[in-house]
């Protein structure tokens, strides 16, 4: 059994248009899962699928009631992208945020998940400005009783490590602004490389160990809102022109993230990230007792036949294996 409260993202339960939000909620409720993270696009798709179509706000209320009846809480609405330091007027961005926060409130979501800025052509790396933008966002979110879970993505333009995201959390200095930590982004940033044949960076194990040691020593538990776990599938061949997931305008880690993130320890599907090492540092060494969420983007789930009920079984088996490894291995 997995000892932390367990959540799962809707993306982890299917990626085909026929894999509906209600089906995913029912699948999550059938397992030992206490919360769900809802992807905005899926909520919008659900609203448009109704006859007649309904507003996203009304869809959020319906989904909230469905989750409640299934004994699931809504952990987050995601992903609210490219906010801090963007070149567009702050008031316009806050108007967009207000809409998302209204929907989060309709869902009774605890958090709005905000990945670090990666719009290179339309943003500034001015730290003071980014801090001010995120303070304004946090102040607005507080009016809706919603927290901001800030996540350093591996392809972030200015913030791509947990250290920089922690620095941002400390400088924003708002009670409702904290960290979302994701094992994929940590591993893809300091350990893995999908553009080389080995799939691993030079001195990868040493770099990861030092990063995790720094985390255990310096990251206060009260700055963490929740953590996410996924693995990374090895690219064979490595990512480059001609690969089916290669897009010239995409950073390699973004192509990786959107296509080849299986459940933890699914080695039979090419998973090879040191996710158990990361989980050991976060859960055992640091002692994180809060929510652990599973966030998967697996190309196989675009197959209609891989139903949410099948995918949740993969999640349960993955957590069973991870629990066994964490209990039986000393790192």
From TrEMBL:
<dbReference type="InterPro" id="IPR013022">
    <property type="entry name" value="Xyl_isomerase-like_TIM-brl"/>
</dbReference>
<feature type="domain" description="Xylose isomerase-like TIM barrel">
    <location>
        <begin position="25"/>
        <end position="321"/>
    </location>
</feature>
<dbReference type="Pfam" id="PF01261">
    <property type="entry name" value="AP_endonuc_2"/>
</dbReference>
<keyword id="KW-0223">Dioxygenase</keyword>
<dbReference type="GO" id="GO:0051213">
    <property type="term" value="F:dioxygenase activity"/>
</dbReference>
<dbReference type="InterPro" id="IPR050312">
    <property type="entry name" value="IolE/XylAMocC-like"/>
</dbReference>
<dbReference type="InterPro" id="IPR036237">
    <property type="entry name" value="Xyl_isomerase-like_sf"/>
</dbReference>
<protein>
    <submittedName>
        <fullName>4-hydroxyphenylpyruvate dioxygenase</fullName>
    </submittedName>
</protein>
<keyword id="KW-0560">Oxidoreductase</keyword>
